[in-house]
């Protein structure tokens, strides 16, 4: 009996000691510093993966309603989240919520996968067609512009992005069609990758998925160790001391955020990245739950999640080994003084203008000020997301009915300065803004893939301002007016032609105007009876002196297109090496009405163009004025779009339609020619002009 007492007493003492130690461990408060060190920022990316080979994978979007996207790179998809994580072990395991993959199956096979692939095939085909058209237009811009043009480098940078996207779309489309052919034997498996950030890490730490259960994800760092300076929360198999728990999270700036997320917060979007996945901490400083969509998931669920990977003895064994390893290689932590000392609250409140603000805020003695990450929603549905400081936001993401703006903002939260706009119709603009409108220099690609690069004012494109240099290709057009002034007659010195003036005005000229005449168009005929008597000699001299030459006809509204074409072909001397013939179309509005309107006019114009093209095998060029373009060309038949356009526009801005030549002034000066001369500029580089001559 005495012997039993001798055994029981020490055992009892040991048990009591263990219980006391456990009680102290559970109930003695953990410092707020250690609590904060157990938190991190989680940036998770997810996608479905169809693996054909180790280095041959197709990635699909996770969401049923957004499964319109497919890519050859997982990071090209937009399925991602940004939230808080909680370290729960010494070997780098952490818990966060499954916001990214909630209600999404881990695997898709069979008919559901085939149906989605077929839908993606259709969508990618449309996308590829659009991106191809956009690339073609940007390639055209590249051919017709040089580095001296304003905005050239910006447009070329955008072209590079478009080209990469097109190549990726094409590659993804081929993989999708490959997957469709073998849909009965393949499967799409969920893949999740994460990057972790702590107050003490400069670079994000990679992490992988270990388990998923009941709204939680268990991740682990790639090196299976706690990041330097980090600690962990203790996780109990029973929810200990939930009373007086508070929500603790870690925000983007490294400051702490303490508060309770309101239940009425929408779960459709991640409005509070500082709180989603955050830790509920009891008054002893231990983990009592995880924040998920405005509700708390208990620590018991966390324990079950951890148990899916290892049983508890194995789990604590791994923890102990990782702790020993960590102690040997511990690096001194960064001083807490390096961390911003702010306590931010997660709020959902109406502002003075009845706009709803959801995000982080700083409570001062007098008022609540927006501070940190947040989103503002106005009555009209407009939303503004970004980082706030002292109740203002200098740049952010503004979403409206028209699309998404990303860039600088003024005090009224309107676009200003530099910014980018992505329209819902596929339009893109990058450049300067003022008072919420495009103003200043910028470039855009609209839904019809037309590039506008130049000056903007109050959302309207004014035009492209060119810088004139000796590297451009200049030309002239001639008629009898260069030979006759009143009763006096003048010759042309073809051996000494040099452009010496562009007509003045506000043109931007780099260097001295002293340009060679690279091409010349000479009037041959008008109507069905008028012939330019100087045409033969000017044509011969131009060819003799190596000037690229072409012939043009002045269109009359009183004669049919066929009659005028026959007269032009009879009188004009067009050699195979000459430039394509030109139809000069300058009717007044009254003349167009008298002949029956735009439709009647374009019928005769098309007749002239087709007859001349059939005879010489070259598509003629259409010469028009800017007013004609604005008022009438939009009514032209689709067939007319196949012909190059030469536009007369005498303002400071270049015509903003696709064109071959631009007649920039009727008041130019050319050495060797008496009086004023029409000066034109080829819409392209010297190389492009040589290519044009060889192909035409």
How would you describe what is shown here?
Helix content is 27%, strand content 33%. The chain has 696 residues and is α+β, with helices and mostly antiparallel strands. The protein has 2 domains: 27-256 and 268-329, no CATH class; 467-695, TIM Barrel (Alpha-Beta Barrel). Helix 3 packs antiparallel against helix 4.
Question: Topology of this protein?
Answer:
Blueprint: H1 2-27, H2 32-37, E1 39-53, E2 56-60, E3 70-71, E4 80-87, E5 93-97, E6 107-109, H3 110-144, H4 152-181, E7 187-197, E8 205-213, E9 216-221, E10 246-250, E11 256-258, E12 279-281, E13 287-292, E14 295-298, H5 299-307, H6 312-328, E15 343-350, E16 356-363, E17 368-377, E18 383-388, E19 395-399, E20 403-409, E21 415-423, E22 428-434, E23 437-445, E24 451-457, E25 460-463, E26 467-468, E27 474-478, E28 484-485, E29 488-489, E30 498-501, E31 508-509, E32 515-516, E33 519-526, E34 530-531, H7 535-544, E35 548-554, H8 561-571, E36 582-584, H9 589-594, H10 598-616, E37 621-625, H11 626-631, E38 645-648, E39 661-671, E40 676-682, H12 686-695
Parallel strand pairs: 11-15, 26-31, 27-33, 33-35, 35-36, 36-37, 37-38, 38-39
Antiparallel strand pairs: 1-2, 1-4, 1-7, 2-3, 4-5, 5-9, 6-7, 7-8, 8-9, 10-11, 10-12, 12-13, 13-14, 15-16, 16-17, 17-18, 18-19, 19-20, 20-21, 21-22, 22-23, 23-24, 24-25, 27-40, 28-29, 30-32, 30-39, 33-34, 39-40
Helix pairs in contact: 3-4, 8-10
